[in-house]
Amino acid sequence: MVTLQTMDTIFYEAQRQGRISFYVTTIGEEAINIASAAAVTSDDFVFPQYREPGVLIWRGFTPQEFASQCFGNRADYGKGRQMPIHYGSNKHKYFTVSSTIATQIPQAVGAAYSLKMDKKDACVVTYFGDGGTSEGDFHAGLNFAAVTEAPVIFICRNNGWAISTPTSDQFRSDGIAVRGQAYGVRSIRVDGNDALAMYSAVHTARKMAVNEHRPILIEAVTYRVGHHSTSDDSTKYRPADEIEWWRMARDPVTRFRKWIESNGWWSGEAETQLRSSIRSQLLLAIQMAEKVEKPPVKELFTDVYDDLPSNLREQEKLLRETISRHPQDYPADVPH
Amino acid sequence: MAAIFQGVGAAAALSSTPSNSFNSKKLLFSPRRSFSVRKGASVVVVRSDGNVNLDLNPRGRRAQQLIANAVATKADSSAASSSSKPGHELLLFEALREGLEEEMERDPCVCVMGEDVGHYGGSYKVTKGLATKFGDLRVLDTPIAENSFTGMGIGAAMTGLRPVVEGMNMGFLLLAFNQISNNCGMLHYTSGGQFTIPIVIRGPGGVGRQLGAEHSQRLESYFQSIPGIQMVACSTPYNAKGLMKAAIRSENPVILFEHVLLYNLKERIPDEDYICNLEEAEMVRPGEHVTILTYSRMRYHVMQAAKTLVNKGYDPEVIDIRSLKPFDLYTIGNSVKKTHRVLIVEECMRTGGIGASLTAAINENFLDYLDAPIMCLSSQDVPTPYAGTLEEWTVVQPAQIVTAVEQLCQ
C-alpha cells in the first residue's frame, strides 16, 4: 500500500512536470487494491478497470515495469500502444486495461467459463467502479455469471464519484450489493478502507467461487481521494474540505499502519525507511525509463493480426518512405 | 489447401454433366423449400435446391433454366477429385455444422455460444445436435445480451478457448459493436501481442424474404473499418464448411458472414478434411470481357445474369471475392489486368459498403489497367422495406446486372 501511495505521488508529479502524458491515481483505494490481491492466488485471472495497479504491485510488477508502460518505451509490454496506466501482463495474469467502462465484466465471465471448462482450481477477479455498474455490460455480465455458475468475484469500488457524477446521480438503488442479489448473485457490502475486512471478504469469496462454482459480488465502499485522472480537477465539483477529510481521517494506509504498529510489528522508523527506499526506487525507475528509446516504427503495424498482411506492409513502406524524405518532422527518439 | 473452383461455362455444363458434380436434373421436381413465387414483374426465384427459375415473360410464362454452375462445381479435369471418394451431398447449413462439429472434435477448446444454440439448435439449425453431443458447457445458451456474450467470448478466447459466437441475426451484433471494435479487434495490439483472441463471430445477415428492416442488415459494411479483424462471406456449402474450419483455426478474430437465403443450398462436398483460405477469392467462372466481383447471395444473381450474357455473346469472368477484409487483390488484380472492365455487384448499400471500398482499392492499385470506370451495383441507401415488391427492388436483380455489363462493354 505504501508502494502504491508513493508510486501515485511520484508518477502524478511526473505527469505534472510533463514527463508522462497522463496518469490515474488510486489514492484512498489502496486497501481495496492490495487486500483483494493478497486474498487471491497467482493462478487467478484479474480483469481490471483502471484503478487497480495495486494488484499488479502485489503480483510482483516492478517500478521499472510500471514506468516503462507509462513512458511507452521499448521495454513496455504493450509496446507503447496504450495510454499510461493501461497496464497488461500475461505472466501476471493481469489482462490489459481497456479504456472502455465495464467491458471487462463479461470478459471476466468468459474467462471464468474457460476456467470452469478446464476444471481449474482458480477463479477470476474483476474490478469496476460505481459508475461502471450503470453500463449494460455490468447487468448482463452478472446475469451470465449467475446463469453459467461461473467462478467470478466482482469487486465494485464504490468510491462515490464517476468523474464528476456523484452516486446520487448514478443510481437510486441501495448501493450495488442489492443489484447482485437481484441477479441471483451472493453479494456483500464491505468497508473498502478496512484492509482486514477486504481481505477477509475476498478470501471467503474466493473459496465460495472456486468450490461452489458461483459468482460473488463485493461492494467495497470507499472514497476517491484523488482526481479522476490528471485531466480532472475535482475541486470543481466537490468541496476541498471533503477531500481533505477523507484523505487524512479516513486514509486506509494510515489505518492499517496504526493497527500493525499497535501490534508491535511496525514502527515509525520502519515507515520512514520504507517510504524513502521506495521513493528512490521509483525516482530511479522514472529516470531510467525516460531515457530508454521508444518502440521502433515497425511496432506500429505488428500485432494487428498474427502475421503482417499485405495492406499493412504497404502502409509501413509508405510511412518509412515519408520518414526518410522528411526526417526533421519525425521524433528523434523513435528508432526506424 | 484451398481448391479454387473453375466454374464450367453454362452451356458446357448443360450438355455434359460431370459424374461427380451436382446433378440438378434429379432435384428439379423435389424442392426442399421454395421461396415465394410471384407473378407479374420479372421475378427471380432462387430455389433452395440451387435451381433458378427465370421468369422472363411478365405474363407468367416460365422458362426453366438449369444453372448447374450457380453452385460452384468441382472441375472435372482435376485429377485429385476423380481419384478421391465421390463425397456427400448436404445443405449449406449442414455444411457449416459439419465444419463446426469436426473442429469441435479435433480441438476440445472449441466451443459455441449464442442465443438458442443449445438444444434448440440455433435459429437456422447450424448448431443442431451439438449440445447433445458435446454438452451444455461447450454449446452454451446465453441470455439475450449480445454485447455481453461477445465480451464473454473475447474473455474466454484470451484465456485459451476458441469460441464460436453466433449472432442470431447479424444485425443483432450491432449491439456487440463496442466489444468487437474496442476489444476484439484491439486487445491483441494494445496488449503488445500478449493476449490473442482466436474468436469466430458468425451469423446470418443480408436481405431475406420480408424479414423487415431490422433483420435485413448488411453488417459487413459497418465492420469493415475495424482494424484487427478479418471478414469472410460464404456462399456455397463447400466454402461454408471450408471457411468455418479455417476461421476456427485462425489465431485472429474472424467474422463469418452467412446469408439468410442461402442456408438450404445443396451441394456435393468432399468427404476428406479441407479448409478454404480465408484471404482468397474464388473464381466462379473464368471469362475475357468483364470482371464481375461479387459475394454471398449476389453471386447467384450474377450467375443468373451470366447465363443471359453468354446467350448475348458476352464472356463475363465472375469472381466471388469471399474475403471481405482483406480483399484478395491478387486474384482481383489478375482478372482486371485481363478484362480491363470491372463490375461490382453487392447487397450492401451504396454509401460506405464493401463495394465502395473495393472500388477505391481497385482504382488505387489497377487504374492503368481499366478501360472504363468501375461500375458498382448496390442496394439503395434505404432501410429494407417489408413489402415484398419494394424489398425486391432494393436488391440488385440479374436484369440490372445484364444492363450494366452491356453498358460497360460498349
UniProtKB/TrEMBL annotation, chain A:
CDD domains: TPP_E1_PDC_ADC_BCADC. GO terms for biological process: branched-chain amino acid catabolic process. Its cofactor is thiamine diphosphate. Residues 1-297 form the Dehydrogenase E1 component domain. It catalyses: N(6)-[(R)-lipoyl]-L-lysyl-[protein] + 3-methyl-2-oxobutanoate + H(+) = N(6)-[(R)-S(8)-2-methylpropanoyldihydrolipoyl]-L-lysyl-[protein] + CO2. Its EC number is 1.2.4.4. Keywords: Metal-binding, Mitochondrion, Oxidoreductase, Potassium, Transit peptide. It holds the Pfam family E1_dh. One of its GO terms (molecular function) is branched-chain 2-oxo acid dehydrogenase activity. It is found in: Mitochondrion matrix. It comes from Herrania umbratica. Belongs to the BCKDHA family. This is 3-methyl-2-oxobutanoate dehydrogenase (2-methylpropanoyl-transferring). GO terms for cellular component: mitochondrial matrix. InterPro entries: Alpha-ketoacid_DH_E1_comp, DH_E1, THDP-binding. Heterotetramer of alpha and beta chains. It comes from the Eukaryota.
UniProtKB/TrEMBL annotation, chain B:
Its cofactor is thiamine diphosphate. GO terms for molecular function: metal ion binding; pyruvate dehydrogenase (acetyl-transferring) activity. Residues 90-265 form the Transketolase-like pyrimidine-binding domain. Signal peptide: none annotated. It catalyses: N(6)-[(R)-lipoyl]-L-lysyl-[protein] + pyruvate + H(+) = N(6)-[(R)-S(8)-acetyldihydrolipoyl]-L-lysyl-[protein] + CO2. The keyword Lyase does not apply. Tetramer of 2 alpha and 2 beta subunits. This is pyruvate dehydrogenase (acetyl-transferring). It comes from Herrania umbratica.
